[in-house]
Amino acid sequence: MSDRTRVVQVGLGAVGRMLTSYLLERPNLHIVGAVDLDPSLIGRDLGEVAGFDQALGITICADLREPFADGPVEAALLTTVSGLAQAKPQIEALLACKTNIISSCEELSFPWQTAPEASAEIDRLAREAGVSVLGTGVNPGFLMDILPTALTAICREVRKITVLRYQDARARRLPFQQKIGAGLTPGEFAQKKAGGTLRHVGLTESMHLIASRLGWRLDRTEDIIEPIIAEREVRSDHITVEPGQAAGVHQLGLGYVGSEEKIRLEFRAALGERDPQDTVILDGVPQLRFTVPGGINGDIATCSMLTNAIPTVIAAPPGLRTMADIPPPSWFSG
Fold first, then answer.
1. Sign of CA dihedral 311, 315, 320, 322
2. What is the pLDDT of residues 8-65, one digit of tens each?
3. Spatial contact of 67 and 81, defined as CB atoms under 8 Å apart
4. Per-state percent for the chain, helix, strand, coil, to nearest 5
């Protein structure tokens, strides 16, 4: 590997555009290409699309293979979709280029139980290519899975894990506010929920990651989704929510061993959420409650995790990796 790690960005939606500045801040990283299928982006300079005052000399292309024509690329940052079925062809194409992959695809974070056949195929292709694949981010990837499992290291016994993630979504990007249903009527919320387009993706994967680390075999999981209805008008820079409309989403992930609830992940994201926080509660010996008052900004944390994971993934054994089986990434000034 050269002194500067050569990386390619694949996907220049909201997260991808934010990620560009994070990658450029690191003197040990060198962006050598950018890929997106949006016709309005193809042929434009990455710096312009990412909102910089000057060009970066990197032209966005549609052909995923093009950035690899000038030499090996150590890592691809894949920030396109949440679903593994949609991401799998992109992952396979990148593995054909023999590059390590760090992806924000939520369903890739721990897919061994939810998509065993796809997981086995990605793992096989990665091993054959001699590279690693990791799905990560703030959640799943850290706050509701890796952080609580790390906190259990000081416990003699753990009977149950509860994680609360409450967010005031006014500070988040517009696509996130739309994803949680802000501004929808209850009927519109119900339609999108039924169509599977309105939910936080990844609670099930987080539960399986926690269970794998603690030696629990989950007999069943539940993912319960309800709207948070506004009692007063609330606004963000993008959306105005009237009383009676959905201000956001309340989602519960429940994991059971037999009939016993062992994991409870409570996710609330709404415009004007009154008590934002990130909290881990361990029922065990000792009892533990760990809280970040105000909560963690998910956009900053996601881009940071993707960037900080690059050297760890490059150094990891080939195959499909999860945050449960690699050394924990950390910020590094080099």
1. negative
2. 999 999 999 999 999 999 999 999 999 999 999 999 999 999 999 999 999 999 999 9
3. no
4. 30, 30, 40
Considering the segment(s) 146-295 as one domain, its CATH architecture is 2-Layer Sandwich (3.30)
- Residues 194 and 197: their CA atoms lie apart, in Å, by 8
Q: Are 144 and 166 in contact (CB under 8 A)?
A: no
Domains 5-137+301-321 and 146-295 share a fold: no
Please say whether the beta carbons of 149 and 209 come within 8 A. Answer: yes
Question: Which residue, chain included where needed, has tokens 């992952």?
Answer: 91
Domain boundaries, the chain: 5-137+301-321, 146-295
Residue 138 has pLDDT above 90, yes or no: yes
What SS3 state is found at 272?
coil
Please tell me the pTM assigned to this model: 0.94
CA pseudo-torsion sign 12, 247, 237, 294 = negative
- Length of the chain in terms of residues written: 334
CA distance 132 to 129: 9
Residue 330, both tokens: 């950390």
Q: What is the C-alpha to C-alpha distance for residues 203 and 206, in angstroms, rounded to an integer?
A: 5
Q: DSSP string spanning 195-252? A: TT-SS-TTHHHHHHHHHHHHT---SEEEEEEEEEE-SS-EE-SS-EE-TTSEEEEEEE
Question: How does pLDDT run across 205-261, given as a tens digit for each residue?
Answer: 999 999 999 999 999 999 999 999 999 999 998 899 999 999 999 999 999 999 999
Position 2 scores a pLDDT of: 52
Does the domain made of 5-137+301-321 have the CATH classification 3.40.50.720? yes
